[in-house]
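Journal club prep — side note

Before the paper discussion, L.F. wants everyone to see what a predicted structure for a comparable chain looks like in token form. Sequence:
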Amino acid sequence: MTSPDPSPGSSSTAPTAPGSTTSDATDTDADATTVPRVTELWVAPERHAPMEPRRRVEVEAGAGVVGDRWHGTRHRHVTLQSADALLEAAEALGAPVPASATRRTVTVSHGVVPTDPGARLRVGGVELEVVRVAAPCALMERSMGPGGAAALRRRGGSVLRALSSGPIAVGDPVEGLLTAPTPSRGAGPARRPDPSTP
């Protein structure tokens, strides 16, 4: 004898067995909000040239981003900043701070970018090492407006060297960011500005 069809409104779904994957969608949603990811990529073919958006860039170990003005330099291979810091800079400036205005290569969704030399990060499949803090320069006054350089101080991310080769694309996960600033990155005297021009 066959069992009767379920009545309208009743559930015909069998109980979830241990180890099932019915929560995969929830886990994916949580991952999207907790794991920092690349949100923007920008390059400039030469110094002082306008920044150009990219969906994907190629990084060469020991050389940097192919097609960017800093490719082939000794240490300044990638610059990386956090959207969280840009929001703080916008509050200090009293105006929006677009990621391209800072002239950094990579912008990540959230998190605190380490500035201590030697700290390691992985962006997509590319391993990077912090060289120094990416201090704002005079160009920020033109790209962000008066007060731009001051608003970006201690919020401009880091300069990194490329330890491995590979692509970096919008949406790639980022490992190695901090969850909160340490005292050395908080209040206190600003670090010596980066002498190079973005």
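L.F.'s comment for the group: The chain has four helices and eleven strands. Keep this in mind when we get to the figures.
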